Amino acid sequence: MRIEHIESFILHVPVTGASIADSTHSITHWGVVGARITTEDGTVGYGFTGTHAHLPSDQLITRCIDTCLAPLLLGENALDTERLWWRLARQPALQWVGRAGITTLAHAAVDVALWDLRAKAQQLPLWGLLGGAVREKVRAYNTDIGWLSLSDEALLRGAQTAVDEGYTGIKIKVGSSVERDLQRLRAVRRAVGEHITLAIDGNGKWDLPDCLRFCQAAEDCQVFWFEEPLWYDAVRAHAQLARATRIPLALGEQLYTVDAFAEFVGQQAVHWLQPDVTRMAGVTEVLRVIELAGAHRLPVAPHAGDMSQVHQHLNFSRTPCTVLEYIPWIRDCFEEPIRVVDGHYLPPQQPGASTTPTPQAWSRYRRPSA
Ligand code: MG
Q: Helix, strand, coil proportions of the chain in percent (round to 5)?
């Protein structure tokens, strides 16, 4: 399957309501910044990274795809995902300007598109290409009810609605003040009852003393995990927190390489691994993280920079991937959107990685990629 053409694209898709915020970010749209790769037999693969829909920075990614990555891939066999991954990762000039960041996000889009092509060539959904299903359905947890920008009333109403819809897991944001977030956590726990999985996410805002204070007071709330409690790269501080609390720690949405995950695992600084195909260099690198997790008997809960279009395939085919985030923002942009029924993902059936946009999304949300 010789690669004949590569073209970047940008879609900006509105979030639920007018805007959402956590402790660190406030956004109105989600950016679907990707690559469309066509092979000589006419097969088309799509892959994308996820952004905050800031056009100038999105265009840095598309420029990297069009001017730096595409020339390295044209004429190559699209089925050689591992070889091509290393061809991009080892390109000396690119490696020099960025082993993480824009170059990795661009690499992610291209790698996912290659896996989409490979699955389409085999006429299999990606989970089938990866070895078949290890589970019939995947437990979803709902993040879209838990934003820090929601009023207390809206937070409780959303949590209750999610439970009524069949979700057995929800996640709420923390990272404002310790006292306010404790009060919101306790109110949500009271509202949903003790049998609902309740995770919290700090988005890296607090320092170690605030995290310690919060965790000591929250230990009776049955917190499923505390996600990104501290600054993203602070391995030793996470290890200190992990030793000090019974609440499991989760992280990974801001880590670019399997080596970064290995450092956290080696320092016993994490309990739940959260790699993201849109943050790391695609499916190829995330599969390495899942192998790492399996070897250490740690669970994986992928972070949904792709809003789970791609990650669902990993959860269906890889044992350590036990739960998956649910945020519906970009669902309706794809030929085969994610399907969640009674709080569980159902397996995609169409060949590929569930990344092919609909013509309607293409015309409605497309922004200039240069
Ligand atoms: Mg998070």
A: 40, 20, 40
Q: What is the distance in A from the centroid of ligand 1 to the CA of 17?
A: 19
Q: Which two tokens stand for residue 191?
A: 């509202």
Instruction: Provide the 3-class DSSP secondary structure of residue 123.
Output: coil
DSSP state of 220: G
Phi-psi region of 94 (alpha: psi -120 to 50; beta: other; left: phi over 0): alpha
**Please, what are the averages of pLDDT over each run of 10 residues along the chain (370 residues)?**
98 94 95 98 98 98 98 98 97 92 98 98 98 97 96 98 98 97 98 97 98 97 98 98 98 98 98 98 98 98 98 98 98 98 98 98 97
Neighbouring residues of the ion ligand 1, judged by CB less than 5 Å? 201, 227
How much distance in Å is there from the Cα of 195 to the middle of ligand 1? 22
pLDDT digits (tens, 9 = 90+) for 100-157: 999 999 999 999 999 999 999 999 999 999 999 999 999 999 999 999 999 999 999 9
Domains observed in the chain: 3-123+358-367 (3.30.390.10), 128-345 (3.20.20.120)
Distance 226 CA to ligand 1 centre (A): 10
- Residue 194 three-state SS: coil
How far, in Å, is the centroid of ligand 1 from the Cα of 201? 6
C-alpha 302 – ligand 1 centre gap (Å): 10
Distance spanning both ends of the chain, measured CA to CA = 28
Say how many Å lie between the CA of residue 8 and the centre of ligand 1: 27
Beta bridge partners of 58: none
pTM for the whole structure:
0.97
Alpha carbon of 248 to ligand 1 centroid (Å): 14
CA of 350 to the centre of ligand 1 (A): 29
Identify the DSSP state of 130: T
Q: Using CA atoms, how far apart are residues 1 and 113, in angstroms rounded to an integer?
A: 13
